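1st attempt posting a full record on here, be nice pls
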Amino acid sequence: MTRKTLVVTISLLILALFAGAALLYRGLAPSEQHAESIHPVQDSSSLVRFHSPVVGPATAPVTIVEFFDPSCEACRAFHPYVKQILAENPQNVRLVIRYTLFHQASEEAARLLEAARRQELYLPVMDAILQAQPQWHDDPSAARAWEAAEQVGLDVARAREEMHSPAIDAILKTDMQDVQTVGVRGTPTFFVNGQPLREFGPGPLRALVVQEVARTRD
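the predicted structure (as tokens):
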């Protein structure tokens, strides 16, 4: 192979890598059209419902609302960053989860999480099923998610009895109605004190939270 041919080959490989990275980012991130369609929400009832799972103190002055799909790869990627932001602001920030059911296994996994909440295992089960997500996110039965949940202590028999309760039906129905009302088209979609996250990424999310924490202290 001549030097010229080698240079051309390396250049093509570099271009291919950049193209692959760009496609991956577009696959995980909401589109620009989606980001522009989301506006600050004046009626907070469509963001936070009394039934919504909450992580962090109820009196926290800053609320992150995450429209979350348990089958979504980008939600899985964001999860450790969201946990880190909460750990950095233990008294000032809370997280509210809203279910967004866009994939084949999403409803099954959301019902699993709600059943786990009844057993006070919501966060351990969320961590476990997200870690195992590549093995089940295209499986409507989410079988590997159930296996992962059982490994962290979930009573699976009880959870399967409770997952189709009218209360859980109502939670998922209301959340999907709010998804439509707010205009959520991709996950995760974040709001911080009603302000939508315009620039997708862990850094912009942290920056918006820091801004809101500072504002509430003024």
